[in-house]
Prior knowledge:
Blueprint: E1 4-11, E2 22-30, E3 33-40, E4 54-59, E5 64-70, H1 76-87, E6 98-102, E7 110-117, H2 118-129, E8 137-140, E9 152-157, E10 160-164, E11 170-174, H3 175-188, E12 196-201, E13 211-212, E14 215-222, H4 226-233, H5 260-303, H6 313-327, H7 335-347, E15 353-360, E16 363-370, H8 373-384, E17 389-399, E18 402-411
Parallel strand pairs: 1-4, 4-8, 9-12, 12-14
Antiparallel strand pairs: 1-2, 2-3, 5-7, 6-7, 9-10, 10-11, 13-14, 15-16, 16-18, 17-18
Amino acid sequence: xxxxxxxxxxxxxxxxxxxxxxxxxxxxxxxxxxxxxxxxxxxxxxxxxxxxxxxxxxxxxxxxxxxxxxxxxxxxxxxxxxxxxxxxxxxxxxxxxxxxxxxxxxxxxxxxxxxxxxxxxxxxxxxxxxxxxxxxxxxxxxxxxxxxxxxxxxxxxxxxxxxxxxxxxxxxxxxxxxxxxxxxxxxxxxxxxxxxxxxxxxxxxxxxxxxxxxxxxxxxxxxxxxxxxxxxxxxxxxxxxxxxxxxxxxxxxxxxxxxxxxxxxxxxxxxxxxxxxxxxxxxxxxxxxxxxxxxxxxxxxxxxxxxxxxxxxxxxxxxxxxxxxxxxxxxxxxxxxxxxxxxxxxxxxxxxxxxxxxxxxxxxxxxxxxxxxxxxxxxxxxxxxxxxxxxxxxxxxxxxxxxxxxxxxxxxxx
Length: 414
């Protein structure tokens, strides 16, 4: 196994003026074992350790969204180009503002897509680039947690709680909301885990139930820092490298390369060959595109025989399906879509605790606890920024040093 330098970036809440909003820690791994102690501080101190090492950067999962998507085909570049169109309906924001990365493997053309705000991803890269550290792999830190084919893993890191639910899936939440999101994930899961393994710090005691939804909960203690645990369990084959597409990086060229005139000659030959190949692919894809369009038109006419004119079969199909759902009285927004959008906004609320969550036909009811009424109003304002939502505070009451409230979010058409 190659020597690795594992670098973890964590966000600093409310940093002082002039202080970096990112805290870094790093550890050298070789043959799956730590070489030395976990280090923290200025990233420039890690540069000497990067020599002859593969650099792996772990970034906060809060900024990544992991989605399942069906993408037929094998050419990864074409699949990557198709991702924005396959997932655009699940995002309110413009997909052009997002960066997407594909999981290495698929099951029956089902891939996991990692989505992250492009500007935030560039900011994280600059933190490393400014220290002259150029990773070959960048991934959400939850995907460094141990993966088990039949079990789920929970890592208790104090206020942050990591949940690994599959080979390329997982999420992070705060301690107060962990139970709610775990129960929601179990209800949504197509395949339930055999057990849930909960890792807790050895010096702390937590009261966990014996089971959740009749699934056994097995508690294990760890006596090392959580970053060391993630570094030891990181497996490249069960993670998603965010450095894809325009952000992909190639390995450095060998110092003992061929003379420059030979390189120029080889490059010229390659350009000629690549140009011919691109022309061939262009005509090949054009023919495939015409064939696929014809098949799509045929499927649309067969499904909706009353349609007289077909201009854009894909768009018209979506519109027809949306009408059918509206006629049936059901919302066009699923629970997973609402959760994916609401969760990052909810997690920004100071002192938020979710006691209960209910969903029905595009309406989500949340029973919350917050520090004060100002925090509740601020949360409502953030949620109301989503134009397709109607947010209403059903009730709110002061109880000692907290506010209990029932908040309702309704999507358009529900």
